[in-house]
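I have been asked to look over a protein record a colleague put together. The record follows directly below this note.
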Amino acid sequence: MSVLPEQSPIQSEQHSDNLPNSNDSRRYKYLVFIGRFQPFHMGHKAVVDEALKRAENVIMLIGSANMPRSLRNPFTVEERAQMIKGAYPKQDADRIHCVGLDDALYNDTRWLEYVQSSIKTVTQSLTEDIALIGHSKDSSSYYLSLFPTWESISVPNYKNLSATPIREGYLMGATPTGDRTPTSTRDVMEAFKKTEDYQNLHEEAWFVDDYKKQWRDTPYPPTFMTADAVVVQSGHILLVERGGMPGRGLWALPGGFVDQKETLLDACIRELLEETKLNVVATVLYASMHSQHTFDDPYRSARGRTITQAFYFKLKNHTEGLPKVKGSDDAAKAFWLPLAELDPKKIFEDHYAIITKMVGL
């Protein structure tokens, strides 16, 4: 998985079967709480309260760092750190260390490296007295298996709070209540509500809500299938700027939904040519297809369950330069970008993870 769910990944009711359970009286030098905290709510605070009792220092690994603002990740690491540390008096806040943690979708090994590196920015060493703390929930025995050398402290979920309804209601225009969020969180949310970034997300939230109403009465939630093109030539990748919601203005791979009577590869090449007007004939594209891979993270799209098949096209280098492109269809523009200039903060949904996986970055 390599990207955090709504709560901390230390969330299994079966944690004792995976890791040695800690002695309630033991005091640690560092307790690590991993989560996205979008936003930080009273359930998260209950975990931090317990951590402050049990450890000299609390390390908050704030997931989905270095991502563009989106409906699932509206707040920056700095804003979430302000929510967290602002919920405590200075003597306790000084013991809380907030560190951004990058996602590594589709690459568990890289995510584990990110966790270790982030912790080391505080502890300087992974041999220190370190343990993990989080909510009790049945969704993450998977995560526990990734940390076999660290003890786990499980804290009951406070009033079954989840960040999802708080965040979704807020982006639709509601004001969060004091029984679910600390004052520091509400202060950050109220300040953000006055910004252009919030207004863009607010508009997008209503767009997605209307979009989902189209299939609200289906007997089962639908699963959508898309195809995306990873086209590389001479160290450059072909991207588009999204012209519509969701993700208007973000960089994305050319691609789109699969029609009823076409193969995945046919859909990919059709969408590629429609969106970029790439000056390469279809027969050359078929011959240049190098590999393909399925990307199916359940949270990858705000529009609903969407699985994509990505195709990697390696075009031959030419002395006359890169093929001409022009944005068309629902792409505001199309452009070639040097691979060295890829910026995850500007890239739509999980397309950065798709690119790094397919190209081998």
